[in-house]
Design goal:
The complex is a heterodimer of chains A (about 240) and B (about 170). With about 240 residues, chain A is of the alpha+beta class. Helices cover about 65% and strands about 10% of the residues of chain A. Chain B has one helix and eleven strands, in the order αβββββββββββ. In chain B, a hairpin with a 2-residue loop joins strand 3 and strand 4. The longest helix of chain B is centred in the N-terminal third of the chain and has 25 residues. Chain B is globular. About 10% of the residues of chain B have low confidence. Classes of the chains: A alpha+beta (about 240), B mainly beta (about 170). At the A-B interface, helix 3, helix 4, helix 6, strand 3 and helix 7 of A face helix 1 and strand 8 of B.
Chain lengths: ~240, ~170
């Protein structure tokens, strides 16, 4: 048994004792009035026993209050401990679920899977681009900008644009690098170069290939968010 | 329950509470990196990699040819299960008086194989102090993999002071 419970019980026993004493005092006052009258005047007898009763009542009230406080403290302590343990269990469950999800993603998310993810995403963007129509003037401006950038920027020399197709807000570009080792360097410089004209970009960079596919959006337009791996593997076993 | 067991239980609860508390604080609020974490994109042997100075104020372009310098800044992901990218991102720059040069940066969220899920380009003011604010537009990240990256063309004389970011 815990020390707090022991103390609560002890106070309970003490209260019971005090109650019994009160009963005895009250009874003696009631039945022993004649004897008391021999030594005390009626007024002093009443005043003395009244004061004693009042003291005991106050003490009992204080003890009851103390007992109630202890019981409440014990209950709150138990509730707080329980809440912490429940939170810890929830956190552990979340950790386990996250680990399981990461394992699942790792199992499915291969370079081939990523290729299919980007193919699907870019197909959606193709539909959007076709649906939005063509801004011929802007499209020609972008094509010229790409062509000039590739020709005039030394760091972009390994890069060539196989195609540049623009709608009203979106442009799809197929890029090719003549030097595999410089492919990523050229891409970094290329998207920096495109920034002022085409500030949003998504690029699929397949490893082991000299090709890259990029989608750009002009200022004021947004590329829709692509799905995350966890959304894509959610329906897989 | 005896006293020892009770004390142990109390310690366990305290430990769990502390761990939960630490776990929560790691994901809360903004993270701030000095701009001096940024490295030159080109090796220092080449002229494109020279003239980028690191200091307590960040990274500054003091190139002898007066050209822009490309730097790459890593962003630490400390909530790897997050799929909503960054809830806030700001890159702060300063151009000393007497100079006029903007800095442009592209912030990106990448897949584990290095493809770009989303990249957004911004440019700073060409004088004084300014902040390029992406807000929560870099809003996608892969669960358990993939990285963030910031690539900046720092104008001549400009200082990239700091990178402020947070994850949901």
């Amino acid at each position: 048994m815990s020390s707090v419970s022991t103390r609560v019980m002890a106070i309970g026993v003490f209260l019971a004792g005090v109650s019994a004493t009160l009963v005895v005092v009250s009874a003696s006052r009631h039945f022993g009035r004649g004897k008391g009258a021999e030594r005390e005047t009626p007024q002093t007898q009443t005043a003395g026993s009244g004061a004693a009763t009042s003291d005991l009542s106050e003490e009992m009230a204080a003890l009851r209050e103390r007992l109630a406080r202890m019981e409440q403290s014990e209950r709150l302590r138990g509730e707080a401990g329980g809440k912490i343990l429940i939170a810890a269990a929830d956190e552990a469950a979340k950790g386990a679920a996250q680990k399981q999800l990461e394992e699942k993603i790792n199992r499915y998310y291969t370079p081939e899977f990523e290729a299919s993810v980007f193919t699907s995403y870019f197909s959606t963007l193709d539909e959007t681009r076709r649906a939005e129509g063509v801004d011929l003037a802007w499209g020609h401006e972008i094509q010229a900008f790409v062509r000039n950038s590739l020709r005039e920027t030394r760091a972009l020399s390994p890069l060539s644009a196989q195609s540049v197709e623009c709608g009203r807000t979106l442009c799809r570009m197929e890029l090719k690098s003549s030097e595999p080792l410089l492919k990523r360097r050229a891409l970094t410089e290329f998207i920096q170069k495109m920034g002022p004209q085409l500030p949003q970009v998504s690029v699929f960079v397949p490893e082991g290939s000299d090709r890259m596919t990029a989608y750009f959006a002009r200022p004021g337009a947004d590329l829709p968010a692509m799905k995350s791996p966890e959304e894509l593997v959610a329906d897989l076993p | 329950m005896n006293v020892t067991a009770k004390k142990l239980s109390g310690c366990s609860i305290l430990t769990v509470a502390l761990l939960l508390g630490l776990g929560t604080s790691a994901n809360a609020g903004s993270n701030i990196l000095s701009g001096n974490v940024c490295q030159t994109f080109y090796p220092p042997e080449t002229s494109d990699g020279q003239g980028v100075y690191h200091s307590g104020s960040g990274v500054q372009n003091i190139s002898s040819d007066g050209g822009v310098r490309l730097v790459m800044c890593p962003i630490f992901r400390d909530n790897t299960g997050n799929t909503n990218g960054m809830s806030n991102l700001t890159v702060r720059t300063t151009v000393p008086s007497g100079f006029s040069a903007s800095t442009s940066c592209i912030a990106m969220s990448l897949t584990r194989y290095g493809s770009i899920k989303v990249g957004i380009w911004k440019t700073s003011a060409s004088t004084g102090s300014s902040g390029m604010a992406w807000g929560n537009t870099i809003n996608k990240s892969d669960n358990g993999s993939g990285a963030y990256d910031i690539q900046c063309n720092v104008g001549y004389g400009a200082i990239l002071n700091s990178i402020e970011y947070s994850e949901p």
